[in-house]
Design brief:
binds aspartic acid, four-stranded parallel beta sheet, 31% helix, eight-stranded mixed beta sheet
């Protein structure tokens, strides 16, 4: 029997992908013009699937906000029953944040939702846009039966779990990495599935580790009063003190092994003041560094009631904190659910 032709929804949000080649400007795009551009430059799409192109917006991703994440999740969940998979064309700068937000909002994820973008516009010579789009559509067209239904990111031949990626370069075609989680698939002469992320085998492994309480259904709302701050030697803790009253939460990006300038009195005072106010303080680390070591220089963070973020990326931790704190009684919700996995975001390792 002949296999039914797959249907893929391509949602366009903007970024370098659709920019005019020179200079890098956002062109006036309408759905017809974008569709024509895609068909002219990537005629193979026709052979891969029946693609429906929808322009959600046309912006540099620096100009996207949490409200846009919520709208995007709504648009996807309202339409995914009609498609085998969804491809989201997105600027690369804040793609890691959007992918994390979608991983929390689209639960249970019914279809493969694959975000991609480009370092050079589709209209430019030597663009990576074509390759990224073709492979993302090919993966999405496999549908939930063949491709794990989850939010992922495709870039430069690699498929990553969406809430584990970080942008690693603004110039290399290998623009993304997932330093604390395995790559899901590699596209070469054929597609090699290397890991299955939240939707597959890892579930059974995880269930042996710790069975989280069933995650609640939360609203698609985000607090706009979460501050993420990178710690530095000689951290100016006094400068932050007056801000505490305006915040719903403080996310500290610690040194790679989870340490912090806890020798500074002003820093310790900042943590105690936050604790006294009931302000949640979360700690996350960057890169693939050590997590969970009990260095004395980091232990004071825990003694002051800070919440450890396991192997979450800073982007994902920021989105999760904003989401939990965006709920009614946000501080309570955050404290109860920070260490519970909603979308395999990486809380199971660490302290
Ligand atoms: N500034 C662009 C954006 O994030 C960069 C890109 O798409 O690569 O929208």
């Amino acid at each position: 029997m002949r296999k039914k032709r797959s249907k893929v929804l391509i949602l366009y949000l903007g970024g370098t992908f659709g920019m005019d080649a020179d200079p890098l400007t956002i062109p006036r795009l309408n759905p017809q013009r974008l569709r024509r551009r895609l068909v002219d430059r990537v005629p193979e799409l026709e052979r891969l699937a029946d693609c429906q192109v929808q322009i959600q917006m046309n912006r540099d991703s620096a100009h996207l906000d949490p409200v846009d994440w919520a709208n995007l999740a709504k648009v996807i969940s309202e339409q995914w029953d009609r498609f085998d998979g969804i491809v989201v064309l997105h600027g690369t700068d804040t793609l890691a944040y959007t992918a994390s937000a979608l991983s929390f909002l689209l639960r249970p994820c019914k279809k493969p939702v694959i975000l991609t973008g480009a370092q050079r516009p589709l209209a430019a010579i030597r663009s990576d846009a074509r390759r990224n789009l073709i492979s993302a559509v090919e993966l999405a067209a496999r549908g939930a039966a063949e491709q794990a239904p989850q939010v992922s990111v495709f870039f430069n031949d690699l498929l990553f779990q969406g809430n584990r990626v970080r942008k690693r370069s603004a110039v290399d075609f290998a623009g993304f990495e997932s330093p604390k989680a395995p790559v899901l698939a590699r596209v070469g002469a054929s597609i090699h599935v290397l890991a299955s992320g939240s939707a597959g085998a890892s579930r059974s492994i995880k269930s042996k580790l710790k069975r989280p309480k069933p995650a609640p259904r939360l609203r698609p709302c985000f607090s706009s009063r979460v501050l993420m701050v990178h710690l530095t030697p000689g951290f100016p803790a006094e400068a932050l003190m007056p801000l505490l009253s305006d915040l719903d939460g403080l996310l500290l990006v610690a040194f790679p092994s989870g340490t912090a300038p806890t020798h500074q009195e002003a820093f310790r005072k900042l943590l105690s003041a936050a604790r006294a106010r009931g302000l949640p303080v979360m700690v996350v680390t960057e890169g693939a560094g050590v997590t969970g070591n009990e260095y004395q220089a980091g232990k004071a963070l825990l003694d002051e009631g800070c919440l450890w973020s396991g192997t979450m990326t800073p982007e994902c931790a920021y989105v999760k904190a904003s989401w939990l704190l965006g709920q009614p009684r946000g501080a309570e919700i955050l404290k109860a659910w920070w260490n519970v996995e909603f979308a395999d975001e990486g809380v199971s390792q660490g302290r």
